[in-house]
Amino acid sequence: MPEDSALDPAASNPTPSNPTPSPATASSPMASNPSGEDLAGRVRAALAAVQDPELRRPITELGMVDAVAVAADGTATVRVLLTVSGCPLRTTIVDDVTAAAGTVEGVGAVRVDVGVMTPEQRAQLKEGLRTRAVPFGAPGSLTRVIGVASGKGGVGKSSLTVNLACAMAADGLRVGIIDADVLGFSVPGLMGITQAPTRVDEMILPPVAYGVKVISIGMFVQGNQPVIWRGPMLHRALEQFLTDVHFGDLDVLLLDLPPGTGDVAISMSQLLPGSSLLVVTTPQSAAAEVAVRAGSVATQTGQEVLGVVENMSWLELPDGTRMEPFGSGGGARLAARLSEILGTPVPLLGSIPLEPRLREGGDDGVPIVVSAPDSAAAAELRAIARTLASRPRGLAGLPLGITPTRPDPAP
Ligand SMILES: Nc1ncnc2c1ncn2[C@@H]1O[C@H](COP(=O)(O)OP(=O)(O)O)[C@@H](O)[C@H]1O
Ligand SMILES: [Mg+2]
C-alpha cells in the first residue's frame, strides 16, 4: 500500500482531459425505420427512470445507454455500458432496463446488450460527476454533516449512527455514513454490508444499505484484520473518504466517530469546518463526565453541538416496571453542563431504552428501526432522527447570497 494512500489504489487526483460529459447519442445507427426511431426515442425517455444503483443518477445522464433500436416486430434492443466489467450490480441494471423499456407501448420483447465503458467514456462520466458533487466541507454545502461522538466506547455511538441514518433514509432523505472509527470500524457489520465498494478508477462508489450510502475502512481490509495506524494515516483515510468516495448530493452525512477526543475528531473539524456534533452517553455519571470532554472539543473547533442522546436509559421488565442498570440522569446532566460550557443551549434530544432486539439487530446487520420500527427504542430513535432532520442547518460559514436592506418599520 503506498504511503500517501489510505485506500489503495485511490491516491491520486485525476486530471481529466475532456471536461464535457458525453451526451448519449440521440439517433443510433441501429434505428432505421422511422416508426422504429420514434419508438426508440420513447424507449430512451423511459430509460431515464432507471438509476444506476450506486451512482443514483439516471443511466441516460451517465452515458450508460449506448444505443436503442426497435425492430419492426416491436423487439427493442438496448445497449447498456457498465462503468466497469464485472460490475456487481449488472443484473439489477439489466432487469431495470428490461422493465423500463417494456413499459413503452408498441414494444414487445426487450433485449439488453451489455458492454463496458472505454477509459475515455469513464473519464467523461467521472468529470460529469465531479463537477456536480458537493464538497461537504465547502462553505456553500447544503449537506448537514453530523459527527456522533462520545467520551468512551461501548455507549452506542455506532448503533445510534446506523439507526438514525436508516430512519432518515426511510423518511426520504439522502443519507450517507462515514465510519470514521477507523481503528474500531463496525458500521458494515451493523448494516449487513458484505459488498465491497465498486471502483471506477480513482473514484470509489459506496455500497448502499437500507437506502444509506456507507463507506468504512472495513470494506478495504481482508477478513477481520486489525487496522494499526497512527494519526496521520487516520487523517488521510478520512480525507480520502471525503474526496474519493462519490456520495453525490446528500441531505445528511453522519460520521461515526471513535470515542474520545483523538486525532479523528480534530481531523473532522479541520476537513469539515461546518460540521456539528451529537454527543452520546449512558445515564451513568462517569460516562457523562467523560462525554463532557468530547462535547467541549467544540469550544476549540467552533463546531455546533446539536444535542445529547442518552442511551441504555432503562430496561423495561416483563411486568412493565423500569430497571435502571446504569443509574439515571447522565444525559440531562451532560446537556446542562455542555450548555454552560458552550454558552448556548444544548438539548437532551432523547433517551433510548435498553432493548435486546437493538443488540440482536446489530449482530444480524438489520438496524432496529428497520426490523422492529414500533419498538420503544426504535420509536425514540426515529423521533431523534426527525428532530435532527427538521432543525435548520446552522448558518455558520454559509454565504447568504442576499443584499441586506432596511427592514420595514414594525406595524
Ligand atoms: N439501547 C441498547 N440496547 C441494547 N443494546 C445496546 C443498546 N445500545 C447499544 N447496545 C449494544 O451495546 C454494544 C455497544 O454499542 P455500539 O453501538 O457498538 O457502541 P459504540 O459505538 O459507542 O462503541 C453493542 O453490542 C450494541 O448492540
Ligand atoms: Mg462504535
UniProtKB/TrEMBL annotation:
Q: Which GO terms describe its molecular function?
A: 4 iron, 4 sulfur cluster binding; ATP binding; ATP hydrolysis activity; ATP-dependent FeS chaperone activity; metal ion binding
Enumerate the residues binding ATP. Answer: G151, K152, G153, G154, V155, G156, K157, S158
Q: Which Pfam families match?
A: FeS_assembly_P, ParA
Keyword field contains Iron = yes
Q: Which domain of life is it from?
A: Bacteria
**UniProt-listed GO biological process terms:** iron-sulfur cluster assembly
Residue span, MIP18 family-like domain: 42-112
Q: Where is the composition biased (Low complexity)?
A: 23-35
What function does the entry list?
Answer: Binds and transfers iron-sulfur (Fe-S) clusters to target apoproteins. Can hydrolyze ATP.
**How the protein assembles, per its UniProt entry?**
Homodimer.
Q: Spell out the family assignment given in the record's similarity comment.
A: In the N-terminal section; belongs to the MIP18 family. In the C-terminal section; belongs to the Mrp/NBP35 ATP-binding proteins family.
Q: Can you say what this protein is called?
A: Iron-sulfur cluster carrier protein
